[in-house]
Write a structure and sequence with these properties.
mainly alpha, MetI-like fold
Length: 254
């Protein structure tokens, strides 16, 4: 019986995962469990922190920090990007400042974040905000600047006011570019979440990994790393579903 495309893809993904686990098992046999734990050792460590409730606490705190910062970045970056993209003189005036601040690593801001906000959620949220803000801002500006002029001419010929043109033409036409920025911001924000929690937080997945290192628990280190990857995959899948829904409503396609 021949498999359809979806089943074939799922089968190949299962084979890839199995090959990864076998390779991991083979590599771990060359080291002691304290240095390179096997998949079974990691599963046991993961079961331990699930049982004692530590895992849920760290995951919930990390997700709160990430979504608070990511949504805050979107809230500021998209309207600002639409505004700057629509008014070219303002975009040209602000571009040197944006290009000056954009290359600065969010981690470089961490000493100031601790001075400004202390220890806790706010420094990590600030770092994630910076990591997510600039990709979204620049993608939004690019999206507005690359709207096909014919769309604007058609709107003008039909007598559409500027507000309607902005909401019904500019925003939908720029959305595919904005999506690219949102995806980039998603990845950079999630990466810097872990980095921020490693530097100064007392909870979260990044802290869990550092804490496991301090206690020489390599199984929990790898468990934390895998959880970061799995949660990132789930968040990215949710983002793609939302993109598909919005683009389908506007007659687009991923």
């Amino acid at each position: 019986m021949r498999l359809n495309k979806a089943d074939s893809t799922l089968f190949l993904q299962g084979l890839a995962l199995l090959a990864f686990l076998l390779l991991w098992q083979g590599a771990s046999s060359l080291y002691s469990p304290d240095q390179f734990p096997s998949p079974l050792d990691v599963a046991k460590g993961l079961h331990e922190i699930v049982d004692n409730g530590v895992l849920f606490r760290h995951v919930s705190v990390s997700l709160f920090r990430f979504f608070a910062a990511y949504l805050l970045a979107i809230f500021f970056a998209i309207p600002l990007g639409l505004f700057l993209g629509w008014f070219r003189p303002l975009q040209l005036a602000s571009d040197p400042l944006v290009q000056l601040l954009r290359p600065i690593s969010p981690i470089a801001w961490f000493p100031l974040a601790v001075l400004w906000f202390g220890i806790g959620n706010l420094p990590a949220i600030f770092i994630i905000f910076l990591a997510s803000f600039f990709p979204t801002l620049l993608a939004t500006i690019t999206g507005v600047r690359h709207v096909d002029p014919i769309y604007l001419k058609v709107a003008a010929n039909f007598g559409a006011p500027r507000r309607m043109t902005f909401l019904s033409v500019i925003w939908p036409a720029a959305f595919p570019h904005i999506v690219v920025g949102l995806n980039i911001a998603l990845g950079t924000g999630w990466i810097h979440l872990v980095a921020g929690e490693m530097l100064g937080a007392q909870s979260g997945l990044g802290f869990m990994i550092v804490d496991a290192r301090n206690f020489l628990r390599a199984d929990l280190i790898i468990a934390g790393m895998l959880l970061v990857g799995i949660l990132g995959l789930l968040i990215n899948s949710g983002m793609r579903y939302a993109e598909s829904w919005v683009l389908n409503r506007w007659g687009g396609a991923i």
